[in-house]
Design a protein that fits this description.
Layout: H1 5-9, H2 19-36, H3 44-63, E1 67-71, H4 87-95, E2 99-104, E3 111-113, E4 119-121, H5 129-147, E5 151-152, H6 156-165, E6 169-175, H7 184-192, E7 195-199, H8 223-235, E8 238-240, H9 246-255, E9 261-265, H10 285-292, E10 297-300, H11 307-321, E11 326-328, H12 345-354, H13 359-377
Helix pairs in contact: 2-3, 3-12, 3-13, 7-8
Bound molecules: zinc ion (2 copies).
């Protein structure tokens, strides 16, 4: 049921807007800025075309639930030292993003950038250290959800209800199960705390499997890693194999009974990305196809030179696995990318339409494909 603005933002306004109207009206203001702010080409017919394109993008976002399948919520998000704040919800409303999979990073306390600019674990964590940090971040999320009118989605029905009401939603996400230390009850506890999406490995060696930027020690998934995947699927988590080596990901494919997600990457040697220090995190065509064969989806991150190049990056992946297996996982954090916040989300969808995706394809890439994975894994 719709509510009035007093409930939505905590301070009274003379007019009672429904949440739906509020979300879409801020998005329209953003499109208005686009029309007057030089985002579109000059000249009346070009401007008219831009307006048409922007309203077509909004239409896509009204009809389908859009999802950033991997994010840290930007500069003041879950990886920052900032207290929980309204920036994420505000940006999502402005750009009409319905759902953010908000990932805490349990191994963050031991990560540093090496000379090549690549994140590396600088030391072995103390026993319990990463779990303690993870629990602290779950508290942070609780506070943010409670104070900033975000809906925490525990089921697909929650995501549908949030979208229908125009209320931004988050899916609790964890980047790397380095905190488990062999204790599957910690996974269960995270589920009870509202997490619905977990990534197996990150930058810290663990006993689940190998990661792309580390030394190969397990030659794929370990028997314990297989047990973790089965536990994820039994409990109802989206299982994310981003950062896993090709061998680990392919072994996960063999174990998995549900569609897998690989939330943030690009195709190996992506011409649209160009030369990048992130090359080791890109994936081969075979690696991508293995994920698609589970009915899964592959998220393209936002480290591209422009929105147009980003759309090319989506096409590069769609050419390999098909439009039904591509999604958007920005990995928005402190690193610069084309979507530093979500005010640009509607413009990204507009760029997809300009770039040749049909409205229906744009809807699937912008969220429909993730929703399929989420429904199968979480229900
Ligand atoms: Zn990552
Ligand atoms: Zn990340």
């Amino acid at each position: 049921m719709d509510c009035c603005c007093v409930d939505c933002c905590g301070h009274g306004h003379p007019h009672a807007f429904t949440r739906r109207q509020w979300m879409w009206s801020t998005a329209l203001a953003s499109v208005g800025t686009m029309l007057s702010g030089g985002v579109g080409p000059r000249g009346s017919s070009a401007a008219a075309q831009t307006a048409e394109n922007a309203s077509a993008a909004l239409d896509v976002l009204r009809k389908s639930i859009s999802v950033d399948v991997h994010t840290h919520g930007g500069m003041t998000g879950i990886m920052s030292q900032a207290p929980p704040n309204g920036d994420l919800a505000k940006g999502m409303r402005a750009g009409s993003l319905a759902v953010a999979c908000l990932a805490d990073v349990p191994d963050a306390p031991i990560l540093r950038r090496n000379a090549a600019g690549v994140l590396t674990a600088m030391r072995t964590p103390e026993p319990g250290e990463l779990y303690k940090y993870h629990l602290g971040r779950l508290d942070w999320v609780d506070e943010m959800v409670a104070s900033h009118n975000l809906r925490r989605a525990l089921t697909a029905a929650d995501l549908e209800a949030a979208h229908a009401a125009g209320q931004p939603a988050i899916v609790g996400d964890v980047e790397g199960l380095d905190f488990l230390e062999g204790k599957l009850e910690r996974l269960e506890h995270s589920h009870q705390r509202g997490v619905r999406h977990v990534q197996l490995v990150h930058y810290t060696p663990n006993d689940i499997g190998d990661f792309q930027t580390g030394i190969v020690t397990h030659h794929g998934l370990t028997p314990y890693g297989a047990e973790v995947i089965r536990a994820c699927q039994r409990l109802g988590f989206v299982c994310d194999v981003a950062h896993a080596t090709e061998d680990t990901a392919k072994a996960a494919v063999r174990v998995s009974t549900k569609p897998l997600l690989l939330s943030h990457t690009a195709i190996s040697g992506s011409p649209a990305m160009g030369p990048t220090p992130l090359a080791a995190r890109q994936i081969s065509r075979d690696h991508a196809r293995a994920i698609a064969q589970t009915g899964g989806a592959i998220g393209i991150w936002h480290f591209f030179p422009s929105l147009e190049k980003y759309v090319d990056g989506l096409k590069e992946m769609a050419d390999v696995v098909g439009v039904d297996h591509v999604c958007i996982g920005t990995d928005q954090s402190s690193n610069p990318g084309i979507l530093p916040d979500y005010t640009q989300w509607v413009h990204l969808v507009a760029a997809m339409l300009r770039g040749g995706f049909s409205a229906e394809e744009a809807g699937r890439i912008a969220g429909g494909n993730y929703m399929r994975v989420f429904r199968a894994a979480v229900g």
